[in-house]
Design goal:
The complex is a heterodimer of chains A (322) and B (376). Chain A has 322 residues and is an all-alpha fold. Chain A has 13 helices and two strands, in the order αααααβαβααααααα. The longest helix of chain A has 30 residues. Classes of the chains: A mainly alpha (322), B mainly alpha (376).
Chain lengths: 322, 376
């Protein structure tokens, strides 16, 4: 028997070996993907001035329908499409609630969350019952880049959803900063009155942004359930809420959101790896699980001073008659 | 922020609830069960007997306490989504109190554990309050994050320092405390039922909240800050202190709910299932539903909580009768929230229309009075 204090030391040094670090990093990138997809969507929505707190509910509902589709049809592609579709459908609902009925966004989002939480559990228990495995995504090795030692395994040997999420970062950056749609989205998020007086339809632009946001949340849900290869009640466990916080963390920029998501994914992967290696055991694992939340609160407190980045009309409904 | 005026009560919540139940009926029907049978069993399970009513009252208790706190927070224009975490913190501090002083007589111990709950929850509410007031941190985000932190603190404490020594001996290691001191058991009010003192505590708390909001200067300031922060600021009201106070008070109510949940529970232990939902029954969220349904008025939140408590109790009866999981009610609660907050604009329009007709009628009357002498 190795004495306890040495054993701890030993396993910690086990963690700091190249293969384990590469493995942890690679799984961190995978863990980051649902955060990234959801918070990229939320970024687009918030840039147009709409806060969607219901991301977690949308993710849960989409995840269930994606899971169910894969279970019944064995087609992962169809599952992803269904997840996206459910997300967009929830987007239509949210657009009606926020833009036509001008509901208080901080509260209506909680309603959407509860709806998704309850309905996904109900449908899962009724239609599936006991969790059954579904095939998860295949890893796709990028030619040439995937063969670079270590780096290849870390970045270029993942499922298609991971690449898609990462490619969305430059795509959305260009969309927001360089296209007419992006300009309109930023305009209605900063000053809807000014945008309106220049002939930009505030509600139409916000609808598009909401649909993109919810669609990506749906995609995030589908990606999560298929990557895990299973479904359970409250599968997301708050990922959607953290995704909203990551938008603030990333200062409403896709690149910042990418950094935040990666950080979250890496912390999650490290914690999981430590548990596997037995570096943290039992009750102490709670502290490593809460660490990201504590970090987020601290980060929010630090960046709150930079709130100049926040879209000026965030959560403010627009109507012409004032 | 005209949150208050837009949310204050009328018939609309009932329309919203009816619409949600209608959608629920369609969902039940689509899933191949009979909605009429389901709802009838739900109603019977919730209000059909003395036992059912007692269970409903017990289930309504945390909703009422959380809802009362929500009334105060929302009226100060602070959105507190940290109910779950605040409930957990209140429960933890009160549990520690009971474990530390198990031999105190009930008369002292019960008020002490309840007070510990208030302090624990209040502290957990004061953190986002201070962050918002002095650093400008969005309270929606900070309360959500603090929920996660509180749940993990609970998991840690119940798995290691506070765990029942028997669980370690047996090696089962179920994360729960030992049976807490009998002196801290909340007394049963009607023998044979589960109705305990916690229900009275919750009722008192909501009446006190009403007195606070409408009969004290601080309460007036709280409402003023929420109603029109610029004007309140201009009138010299301390915006920052009011914001912090509102979140602290809101958290304290949730913490009290946590203490009552522990000491009014059947097992008289604090048990975790790893998430907060197992312990709180999502009261941190459902309390928001009850408060919104009660028009953000502490007294109206009483019948509203009773109604939602009944929905939760009855859902189990429905599940047994037609095999539709009780999670349906969580989903319907979500719909009710969406409908209630969506109806505020409709309601404002309606009120404006009513006001206009009244003004027109008054104008017509005065015109007639003026003309009356000329006709003769």
């Amino acid at each position: 028997m190795i004495p306890y204090k040495w054993r701890e030391h030993l396993t910690m040094s086990e963690f700091f070996t190249l293969p384990v670090l590469v493995l942890t990093f690679a799984s961190g990138v995978r863990f980051a993907t649902p955060y990234l997809l959801a918070s990229l969507g939320e970024t687009v929505g918030q840039r147009s001035g709409v806060l969607n707190l219901g991301v977690d509910g949308v993710m849960l509902l989409s995840a269930f329908f994606a899971y169910w589709t894969v279970l019944e049809t064995d087609s992962r592609l169809l599952g992803v499409v269904v997840g996206l579709g459910v997300g967009i459908l929830m987007g239509v609902v949210y657009a009606i609630v926020t833009l036509i009925f001008k509901a208080e966004q901080g509260i209506s989002g909680i309603g959407i969350f509860l709806f998704g939480l309850g309905m996904s559990e109900l449908l899962f228990l009724k239609q599936v019952g006991t969790p059954r495995g579904i095939p998860s995504f295949d890893d796709l090795k990028v030619p040439l880049l995937g063969d670079i030692p270590h780096i290849g395994d870390m970045f270029f040997n993942h499922s298609i959803v991971v690449y898609l999420a990462v490619l969305l970062v430059p795509a959305l950056t260009i969309m927001v900063n360089r296209t007419t749609l992006g300009l309109n989205i930023r305009a209605v998020g900063e000053s809807p009155e000014a945008a309106d007086s220049l002939g930009v339809s505030v509600n139409l632009t916000r609808t598009v942004a909401i649909l993109i946001g919810n669609g990506l949340a749906g995609l995030a849900g589908a990606a999560l359930t298929i990557e895990l290869g299973t479904f359970q009640n409250n599968l997301t466990n708050g990922i959607g809420f953290i995704a909203v916080a990551l938008v603030y963390f990333g200062a409403w920029r896709p690149l910042g959101v990418l950094a935040g998501s990666l950080l979250y994914g890496l912390i999650t992967a490290t914690v999981t790896q430590w548990k596997t290696l037995g570096i943290v055991t039992g009750a102490a694992a709670s502290f490593t699980t809460m660490a990201p939340a504590v970090l987020t609160v601290i980060a929010l407190a630090i960046i709150a001073r930079r709130s100049a980045d926040q879209p000026a009309a965030l959560t403010v409904p627009f109507s012409r008659d004032g | 922020m005209h949150l208050i005026r837009r949310l204050s009560g009328s018939l609309i919540p009932f329309v919203a609830a009816f619409a949600a139940l209608l959608i629920g009926a369609v969902i039940i029907w689509v899933l191949g069960a009979n909605p009429f049978v389901g709802y009838w069993e739900l109603l019977k399970g919730a209000f059909g007997s003395g036992d059912a009513l007692a269970d409903t009252a017990v289930r309504a208790m945390p909703l009422l306490l959380v809802g009362t706190g929500i009334c105060i927070a929302f009226r100060a224009s602070v959105i507190n989504i940290g109910g779950e975490g605040q409930i957990v913190c209140g429960a933890l501090l009160s549990t520690v109190t009971a474990l530390a002083l198990p031999d105190l007589p009930s008369v002292i111990l019960i008020p002490m554990v309840l007070f510990a709950g208030v302090i624990g929850g209040g502290f957990w509410g004061a953190i986002p309050g201070a962050l918002k007031a002095y650093l400008g941190v969005n309270e929606i985000l900070s309360t959500i994050m603090l929920n996660i932190v509180a749940i993990q603190v609970m998991n840690y404490l119940l798995r290691a320092p506070l765990i029942d020594p028997l669980e370690i001996q047996r090696g089962t290691r179920i994360p729960q405390t030992e049976r807490l001191s009998e002196n801290a058991d909340l007394p049963i009010l009607i023998a044979g039922t589960r109705l305990h003192l916690g229900v009275v505590v919750a009722l008192l708390a909501s009446v006190l909240a009403w007195v606070f909001l409408w009969r004290t200067t601080v309460g007036f300031k709280t409402r003023a800050v929420g109603h029109n922060s610029a004007a309140a600021n201009y009138a010299g009201m301390p915006f920052k202190r009011m914001t912090m106070l509102a979140l602290t008070y809101s958290g304290a109510m949730c913490g009290l709910a946590g203490a009552v949940l522990v000491f009014g529970s059947q097992s008289h232990r604090f048990i975790t299932d790893g998430s907060s939902f197992g312990f709180t029954g999502s009261a941190g969220f459902n309390g928001i539903v009850a408060a919104l349904f009660g028009g953000l008025h502490p007294l109206w939140t009483i019948p509203s909580s009773f109604l939602f408590g009944g929905l939760l109790v009855g859902a189990n009866a429905m599940q047994r009768a037609i095999q539709i999981d009780s999670a349906l009610v969580i989903g319907l609660n979500g719909l009710i929230v969406v409908f209630v907050v969506s109806s505020t604009r409709v309601r404002t329009r309606l009120r404006q229309a009513l006001e206009m007709t009244r003004i027109r009628k008054a104008e017509d009357d005065s015109v007639q009075v003026e003309r009356a002498p000329n006709h003769e």
